[in-house]
Amino acid sequence: MKKYNFGAGPSILPQEVMKATAEACVDFNGIGLSLMEMSHRSKEFQAVIDEAQDLMKELLGVPEGYSVLFLGGGASLEFCMVPYNFLENKAAYVNTGVWATKAVKEAKLFGEVVEVASSKDKNFTYYPKNFEIPQDADYLHVTSNNTIYGTEYLKDFESPIPVICDMSSDILSRPVDVSKYTMIYGGAQKNISMAGVTFVIVKDEALGKVSRAIPTMLDYRTHIKKGSMFNTPPVIPIYSALQTLRWIKAQGGVVEMDRRAQERADLLYAEIDRNKCFKGTAVKEDRSRMNICFIMTDEYKDLEAEFLAFALERGIWGIKGHRDVGGFRASCYNAMPVEGVKALIACMQEFEEKH
Amino acid sequence: MKKYNFGAGPSILPQEVMKATAEACVDFNGIGLSLMEMSHRSKEFQAVIDEAQDLMKELLGVPEGYSVLFLGGGASLEFCMVPYNFLENKAAYVNTGVWATKAVKEAKLFGEVVEVASSKDKNFTYYPKNFEIPQDADYLHVTSNNTIYGTEYLKDFESPIPVICDMSSDILSRPVDVSKYTMIYGGAQKNISMAGVTFVIVKDEALGKVSRAIPTMLDYRTHIKKGSMFNTPPVIPIYSALQTLRWIKAQGGVVEMDRRAQERADLLYAEIDRNKCFKGTAVKEDRSRMNICFIMTDEYKDLEAEFLAFALERGIWGIKGHRDVGGFRASCYNAMPVEGVKALIACMQEFEEKH
């Protein structure tokens, strides 16, 4: 039976990426050594990281004056690196969920933080809009997609002050106008790679403007200067990122990823809205294409565990919702084929007929 | 031709580790999913990290009251995390090379740093001993093995104040009395795993004694509380660490690793001391068993490039010395078979005969 992995992250990657990574772990490009045991200073790995950086730039149309970094530590580490590098006096944060809340918490250690908007009042089921942004803040921090609650802001953020965006869970799923951001960052373990590498796209000239001393490893300038190799980078996670980036390019780039995301989301939300057993949790206009959250309708609410088991028997893997929302979450990252979504829909229909 | 990888890191790992990692990247334990795409919250990965933590404790005899962590970011990140968590007023550092110097630099951002000893006067070719340790310092920071210079302190450090030791390049190569340390840490990419994971062994009760606010991700208590899973950990690097730990246990544990390290070092240093073309760089009593550094004798000093090429033709890979020392460095980590060292020795003898 074909398995479809709807897990929220670490999550589905193209089969080609898994296979190429496994091969590199045994013998890298036929040179008789595993990439696991090769120096990050070797010309072979230099070519890997160079190509990965170049492909990120190409796929996202990153303008001149920006650097692309691949770092360790996870997006959670960025939550403190962002204020370390950018917060001199005051920062503005939009609170759209657990991760945004964590980002706010770290920023408060470094200066004044204004929560300019929040959707906490309705358990983060919508994306706040039309809020005021203080002109004197150093930056506006936003989270484009909220993995737990299934909300997403599909347009680029417009702001009179520099925008820094956590795109952990929707990077490379659509075209982005990078020039509208001072920094974009995220964990790679959803749309790009296995867990263990963080991507950062940062505008070089925005750095170096805070007066505090920054520990070397937490200063983005350190990593820019050394091309992400100030210290030993996570070699295999970066190699697997390269494989995914090549795959995205071969499939037609972010335009094609965008089309597929829309196709998957249209199909699945239509079924959620039609099926008498299920209903969506996020407000329609802010529905995420990456993390599609739904629960049982009131009439069927006791059947949650049954549906999970029912789906698992049909190869639908990882759809249990986050405890903060309950129900189900079908994460549909770039590598999820439309067949996976169709299999889930068939399963939902079969379940409906059964009851 | 059999290749022997003497690279300084990322470096040789047991073939079984490479193979098991590759298999997990395709299909983890036959469940039909790659470990690359599986949630770190799955019971399958929980079992992996639990076993890895337990094996670290078992192999090193870690006493009660210590935690073992697997983090991202690299040992270089620990250089600032150590003072963040432990430096209240003053810290003592022993400077034994480039990495120790980097650790000193980060600590200076957090308080007074006393460099209690340094071997910089002789390009770090020896390990300083019998230095005075200020009783009022919060901790003494040492580096047990210096990868670049090929020096190693093979005994446990005795100190009237808490000892924190960077064991990046000699962890698990010999028994250690962990109770003599407040913390031991290092990058895993030499004796434990692929690049991308850092190990930390820390005494729980030593934490929480500084008055500063610590960013969540830089606070060891965060990671202890969550069993290294506060955020998404580097899943595959941890899995490959588990494979190496299992391998070490199956081979006979650190006692056997110790015996092998001594055997390799005895053989290779004997040849370096005998062969008229080569000479060692570190003082004899402080010679590292992990990184064996040597240069051409004056008479043959123009033949360095020739020997490198000569060795490469015979399957000896990665012995070019670090630019700070020149010459050659044969890194002999746990996974280096004695046959590799014998092949290098044969190559050195053949080269001597040729000239």
TrEMBL record, chains A, B:
Modification N6-(pyridoxal phosphate)lysine occurs at: K190
Molecular function via GO: O-phospho-L-serine:2-oxoglutarate aminotransferase activity; pyridoxal phosphate binding
UniProt signal peptide: none
Co-factor binding details: Binds 1 pyridoxal phosphate per subunit.
Reaction catalysed by this enzyme: O-phospho-L-serine + 2-oxoglutarate = 3-phosphooxypyruvate + L-glutamate; 4-(phosphooxy)-L-threonine + 2-oxoglutarate = (R)-3-hydroxy-2-oxo-4-phosphooxybutanoate + L-glutamate
Binding residue positions for pyridoxal 5'-phosphate: A75, S76, W99, T147, D166, Q189, N231, T232
Residues noted as binding L-glutamate in the record, renumbered to the chain: R41
Cofactor(s) needed by this chain: pyridoxal 5'-phosphate
The Aminotransferase class V domain, residue ranges: 4-344
Entry keyword Endoplasmic reticulum: no
Transport as UniProt keyword: no
Enzyme class per UniProt: transferase
HAMAP family membership: SerC_aminotrans_5
Function: Catalyzes the reversible conversion of 3-phosphohydroxypyruvate to phosphoserine and of 3-hydroxy-2-oxo-4-phosphonooxybutanoate to phosphohydroxythreonine.
Subunit comment: Homodimer.
Family: Belongs to the class-V pyridoxal-phosphate-dependent aminotransferase family. SerC subfamily.
Protein name, UniProt field: Phosphoserine aminotransferase
Lineage of producing organism: Bacteria, Pseudomonadati, Bacteroidota, Bacteroidia, Bacteroidales
